[in-house]
Amino acid sequence: MTTTELIALQRAHKQAQSDTTVAYRLNKLNQLRLALKGPWKERLEQALWEDFNKNAAEVNLTELLPTLDNIKIIRKNLKNWLAPQKVKTPLPLLGSTSYTRAEAKGNTLVIAPWNYPIYLSLHPLCTSFAAGNTVILKPSELTPKTSEALNALIEEIFEPQECAVVLGGVPEATELLAQRFDHIFFTGSTHVGHIVMEAASKFLTPVTLELGGKSPTIVDASANGYEAGKRVAWAKYMNAGQICIAPDHVYVHRSQLDAFRKGVKEAVKRHYGDDSTNHPDFVQIVNPRNFDRLNSILEDSKTEAGILDMGGTANVEARKIAPTMVVDPPRNGALMREELFGPLLPVFGYTDLDEPLKEIGTREHPLVVYIYAKSRKNIKYIQRHTRAGATAVNMSLLQIANNFLPFGGVGHSGMGKTNGHAGFLEFTNKRSQFYQWGPPINNFIAAPYTAAKRKFINFLLKNLY
User: Fold this and answer.
1) Which residues are catalytic?
2) pTM of this prediction?
């Protein structure tokens, strides 16, 4: 079946899909849940190992568990999410009732990235399907084994008119974006996000854009610098830094700088040993192109000011770059020109909290601002003086694990939210419903405006508002 034929098939099925029962949708999601816990678990683990050496334990922890948690939340709450929600009736509208009802948007397109190809494919797919939409999933061509496995999995559980996968690269994605959908959900780079939004604008298609950016971390004077270093290192070097919400760079109060550096180094040694580029739990860079990009940034940074405090080596054959930390590099140098999306960590010392806040304010709004501090006053001050999709205090990455917490960016880091009920709302139209049961107020306020009617209107103005 061609892409055009698939889109036509789903378009013709749109109303029927919207009419499916809650029981039908939950049964399909339960089949997917059982598949992920059973026969498909090992196949997906193997696929991700072949794509970029992701350890099976990490696949379970960061791909399957959050996907299963999302399905669990949907199964528990979908009936309530779909139920009409009554809203208040103002006094002048007595005799009427009003509700809102979540209805499916229709035909949806999910474009997923390569860094977490299972979770970032199935998470929005499940939510959109639960809302009553049809779904076309376009997984990344950079993780071909995983994309092929996802295709086979979706074919086994869903009918093509309700959920299907389109494999391929840029040409296939371009062909999809040239078609009309009722919602597009994209996760990826800001650059491609511009392309998706431009294509969607042709049809005024609403979009959810989960993008990226340079998410900063601030370690203030009241923090435990050593503990902050360990936590930042865990978050930064997991998946070799190929995470949209990974700490991109860190500002550390100079009183905590030595302790922070020590914490980072000890954590890296504990997680990945003395030779991380040969450690089986340290993930590859996804492909040669991204490896070359990161290696070029690393080599350029070596010619600039700053202290190469850890790492700085690359294993070309293994396609791995050692966890690297550079202290006080140039603020406009190689490490700060773009989102790093790799295991390179620039660290800047500061003495006045307004220094990093001023610099953060000159950049595009990030997905997350991470704060390490004990001072509640400083935490509130940082929050008031920054703009981001989220704030996480005294921990990194774990905010994404709470599926009850809306996740998304702001400005160049994205628009729209995902996770739990917030994600469900992205894929639905909150339709207003108004019912008039008794005599309507227009009987008392319609023209001709007699003296009695004018008196009634003046009474409303004076006493109700």
Assistant:
1) 210, 244
2) 0.95
